[in-house]
Amino acid sequence: MTNQLLIKNTMADMRGLSTCEITLLQSGCYVGVQLLGYYEKGDIPEPIVYYLSTTVLNDDGGSVIEVDTIKLEFFKKTITLKHFGGVNDGNEVNFTGTDNKIFIDRAINYVSRVQGTLTIDGKYFHSPLSFTQSDFTLIITAGSKLITVLPNEQDKQLTLTGGLDNVVILGYGAELVAPNTYTTGEWRHIVNINHVSNLRIEGLKVSGGGGDGFYIGSYVDGQMPYRVTLESTISDGSYRNGISVINGESIYLYNPLCQNVNGTSPQAGIDIEPNEGTFELLKDIKVINPTTKNCTGCGVLFALASYVNNAKKSADVLVSNHRSFSDGIGFSAGGKGSGHPWNNKLSGYLKYDGAIFNSKSNGISISAFDVSKTPILNIDAYVENVGSGSTLNTEQNGMYIYAGGGSTFDVGNIEAKIIIRDTRDVAKTYSDVYFSNQVKAIVNYDIAIDTDNRRTFAYGIFNSVLQDAKGLIKYAKKPVYNTDTALSVGNSVRGSGGIINVLAPMTVPLPSFVSFEGNIYQVNCSISNSVVVVPVSGESILIDGAKVSSLTLSKIGQYLELKATINGWEIVKSSYDKSSTAANRPVVTAGILYWYDSTINKPIFWNGTTWIDIATG
């Protein structure tokens, strides 16, 4: 009767081996014990065989069982939580059930030791978990749930730390669930990723919680997250953010979905917001194909000023192909409050591209992005039906750039390509871009706009014009404004450039080139009477190297294309033939200028002092 297995129905039966059975095992009459169930026969996926062992490991309730004077051990690289006594009675409605923490910890210790795989199948209640082990795979099957009540509000549901390395968690169709009834705080994250490397989490959904769905970062020098990948994860109903990336290197988020974030600031789908530690870094951060829905704050947020509080840093962040649906703001970037200083310089690469639909406020919002301390922020976005949840003009714009209120530094370093559409029966978009520059300037920007011109404000750009707006705005099709009343080009085109069709005799006063440097305006004369283009007092129009204080258009079809430069308004293109009646000769304030006087039908010449006949001198 050698080479036979002793059959036991339950773990209790195996722990109750008789002296005779132990002797038969020791003699080799039985080669091992076949266990058919843990608590009752058949409650484990398949029978498992235990063998006599000389291991020094302690009884862990699963892989090693100590019975009287012997130890029994199984050798299996693929196990389930039920092999360690997991009790499948979790209730996600009232957050009750048997606490499975000890069973999960023991099972993870085992699969880490053998570099194996643990499968969790069912609904398991547990107190907060912390994994520090390496070299294992955890599979949570579709429909399964890990459910927690946080007994201490500082606790997290699952913390991954302690130098954990080479770990894969697969959870397609599975869910981690925590209460979402909190009214204060922001720290009770569901998955808290700290000191780890080579960690991959796929398909897992996290719901509720009192902080972030996924938090990636560390407060300890030398213990940064490294090579962390979240693939097709879902964060639903988080209290602070769906995913926070605080610091780390080679952090990759592929196809994440973050939705229904509501609770405490910033309430973003994905928040990239480092703290101020000198050891922190944002290196090789990639967010590819993210989707955010109904997040009270932003779909995606860059908040970067604290990062350079104590040292100059570099950041390397790419967000590509974002899809934002009904978030507060689709994408927002800046510092930490409009008056919060950037103590040191930030260098690196910051790129965002995406499509934003039905944002409750602005499609894109830029604030506190210190032009003297920040790298170029590159944006490529489609924005549709902004301001769906607001009645304020300041919150109904494709892009909103803020340098008002408590601003203490100029804002800028923005390169953007934006397509703006309003498909609603009654357009609600206020303007393509809203410059809120009442306090500080908005400078060093290059913004290309493709718009359908469905907006409630008359002009493509709203510009407060109290402080400078120095940069370039280019339209796929230049906006056209028709006017038959006196106007300021600056107030009409609002810092964006465009075409002014003048339909009546009038003076067109240009804004100060100092405030609108880089912008290009075109003034068209659509009548046969005089249209006089005049810069502000003390400024000039540049023509053939000379400076003049005004130019008069008097022929239908004549136009001037003027660019604000550091020296004045420069004519870059025109149909102007440098001729006029004697009464409409320009007043030359500097340089020399050739002209044609149609009153005397002669070419004339301003020699720096007076007009002279070219032929006679």
Entry keywords:
44% strand; 21-stranded parallel β-sheet; 5% helix; twelve-stranded parallel β-sheet; 53 strands; mainly beta; 4 helices; elongated; 617 residues
> Gyration radius, to the nearest Å?
35 Å
User: Poorly predicted ranges (pLDDT <50, ≥5 residues)?
Assistant: none
The total count of helices amounts to: 4
Structural class: mainly beta
Per the principal axes of the C-alpha atoms, what is the gross shape?
A: elongated
Q: Which percent range fits the helix content?
A: under 10%
For the record, give the distance between the C-alpha atoms at the N and C termini, rounded to a whole number.
132 Å
Q: Please give the largest β-sheet.
A: 21 strands, parallel
Number of E-type strands: 53
- How much beta, percentage-wise? 35-45%
Mean pLDDT: 92
